[in-house]
Amino acid sequence: MIKQLRLKDYILIDELEANFHSGLNVITGETGAGKSILISAVDLAFSSRVSKDVIKNGCDKAVIELVIENTKHNLKPLFEENGIDDFGNEIILTKEITQSGVRTRLNGTLINQDFLKQIKALFLDIHSQHQTYVFMQPKHHITLLDNYAKDVYGKALEEYRELYKKYLDTKNLLEQAKNSADNTESQIEFLKFQVNEIEEAEIKSANEDEELNQELEVLANAEKLKELTGQAYWAINGDDGSIIEALGKIKQSISKAAGMDSKLEDLESRLIDITENLHDAGSELRDYSQNLDNDTERLNEIQERLYLLDKLKRKYGSTLEEVLQTHDKLAAELSGIEFSSQNIELLEKEVDKLHGQLADIAAHISENRKNYAKVLSVYIQEKLEKLELPKARFEISVTEKELGADGCDNVEFLISTNVSEDLRPLAKVASGGEISRVMLAIKSIFAQSDDIDTVIFDEIDTGISGRASQSVADEIKELAKYHQIILITHQPIIASKADKHFYVRKSQADETKVEVYVLQGDNKIKALAELAGGEINEQSMEFAKSLIEA
What we know:
By secondary structure, this protein is α/β, with parallel strands linked by helices. It is 55% helix and 19% strand.
């Protein structure tokens, strides 16, 4: 539900903060006072198109902020997917309108219009004289009917949707198989040639070419390496004047000295370690030099191998890693073609089997839909009669269509509000007063199965009076048990049912301003009296008190 609306520099409002009740919120005020400003602000917060005309004269920008309480919907996965902070049960929607553009943020993160539409669909329905209410749109009618009857065929519908997904996946595999089977034999042969060419090279690793180049470098410089390592060996371990010989003499001197001063024992030990390490290094250099051959045959082998690998890299990738990846891709494509050719018949049988299962479940669901459509049609028509539309006829039409995501039915709400007129789609109902009451009747029936939090009615009392007003008031109060309701009304009977009563006033001193007050006690009675009689007098005050006490 909408907990709070904050406005800054919006149209005629400098700054405003309105805290809404979870039940029935009524907005009243004189004609032209700006009552619709509050509702339009809520609507614009969720809208994709906002005119810069809403910026208050002389200001740089307008800001609309909604604080929404969420207790019904698990939005954490959606928020994580879109990088939006999760504030628990609270959502903050902010729209900033400047001369150059509009920015919308959810919990501080910029969001696009598609995401905003998803959020609006969960939390808000708006019905005014100039907007299409969600129930008017035929695409929603099947969902409304299914939600109402979910305890009867909800599980069957879930089973159907899971099976339908499997059916679509299998159809997609069949289509791929058929497309693959259309490949010519020459294409298959070419794929085989490419796969075999890479496989016959027997690439040892993605780094094989680098390792071979290193070995090639060694073989190409074998004579020089032999000379350099041999010189190093003789310098360390030669017969005359070698490092080992010099170290031996140094060690003898230090050993004698250590016998005289124990402090030199550590130094003696380090010299022994150095001598041993040099012996080891000398041995390694001797072995390296002796084993290093100018292997012309191996040199040629490496050069031929590198030529082959370079050829593969020119054809299949700039590195051996890419060549190996290309092999896997080509092999998978070849395997898919060969598999598809053999698998088409099996897939066709599976598609037919799944279609038959879907048709059986869809028929069961359709039968239940038609039964519940008749029951709901009667309920809604009875509601319409209570709302002073005694001649109205209402019917939920269920007609057959091709199997789809929701079964084999088209569902549409039809209505006639006059005896002389045939049933027509709900969206074509012309009268504003009739639309309001029709929507209210439908909403009342679906209230307990509808997950939308907030419903806004802009002047739902248009074209009604007398007993119709009382009926509408009672129905709205009942509806407010299941949804947060925000509405503008000129009817005191409806306003008297408010859990929270907002009064909008326009003042024109140095500049025009719109101010909003929350009415309680005597102020609320005076507002109802003014609605009832156009002025506050003893008679209208008594009437207002009677409404409050009723």
